[in-house]
Design goal:
It contains 3 helices and 7 strands. With about 130 residues, the protein is α+β, with helices and mostly antiparallel strands.
């Protein structure tokens, strides 16, 4: 029985692409640092890793989502998942190493596209 392919991060509105930790904090701060407000971003280094930036107790926390050699993704104190979106979906109801649950996705504005590289969006890269 084949397993379903993981959800592409570029398909969800809370994925911002390759933005810095500082940019993620600016975005989250613009939404009043609500408890559990989060966004997903791609790590600038190393490639193929992601990070979740989340608000807790009026502070920002960043979790590296590492791609393992077996192709699964996990945070340092968590269990592995087929992709970063599945990891976030699990943590909505299970802390498993996070300080708070990712409850409120911080959606991009309708005109914003996830950044693949400076000056290039994911949709441009995929075309």
């Amino acid at each position: 029985m084949a397993t379903a392919a993981p959800i592409k991060p570029s398909s969800v509105l809370y994925f911002y692409g390759r933005i810095t930790r500082e940019e993620a904090e600016q975005i989250l701060a613009s939404y009043d640092k609500k408890e559990g407000l989060f966004l997903l971003r791609e790590s600038i280094n190393p490639l193929n890793n992601y990070a979740i930036s989340i608000c807790h107790n009026n502070n920002f926390h960043h979790y590296n989502i590492e791609k393992r050699q077996d192709g699964m993704y996990k945070i340092s104190d968590g269990r592995p998942f087929p992709g970063p979106i599945e990891l976030i979906q699990h943590h909505e109801n299970n802390l498993d190493g996070m300080v708070t649950h990712p409850r409120y996705p911080c959606f991009r504005q309708p005109f914003q596209r996830p950044i693949a590289f400076r000056g290039m969006t994911y949709s441009e890269l995929e075309n």
